[in-house]
Design the sequence.
């Protein structure tokens, strides 16, 4: 599923729980998988087999989003203007990320997959 990313493990429930700083949790088909992301590491998420994290969802573009662990947070860039990654607001509504967005933490929607970004530092 991921190239150059430390796989932490799978979680049976998609409910959020505390993770180490700099963790990405992917919720895909009701199953959660956590990855530790190193400072400065850049990951392309998409359906292409060469993506840093491969998402198996028909709504995901081959190169859908770029996520970078940067300083005190994350930089998220949509790579497909016709099918952007979205930030889920507190009410659960999806807000398209037009180009790029800096976040301390947050929840994204990439295709039909939820992506939780945990803060890189306490």
Sequence:
């Amino acid at each position: 599923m991921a190239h150059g990313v430390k796989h932490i493990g799978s979680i049976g429930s998609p409910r959020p729980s505390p993770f180490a700083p700099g963790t990405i949790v992917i919720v895909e088909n009701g199953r959660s998988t956590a990855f530790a992301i190193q400072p400065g590491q850049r990951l392309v998420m998409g359906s292409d087999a060469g993506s840093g994290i491969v998402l198996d969802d028909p709504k995901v573009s081959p190169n859908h989003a770029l996520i970078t662990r940067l300083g005190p947070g994350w930089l998220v860039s949509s790579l497909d203007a016709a099918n952007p990654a979205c930030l889920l607001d507190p009410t659960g509504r999806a807000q398209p990320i037009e180009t790029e967005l800096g976040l301390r933490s947050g929840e994204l929607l990439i295709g039909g997959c939820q992506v939780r970004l945990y803060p890189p530092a306490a």
About this structure: Residues 31 and 94 are 20 Å apart (CA to CA). The chain is about 0% helix and 45% strand. The chain has a mean pLDDT of 85.
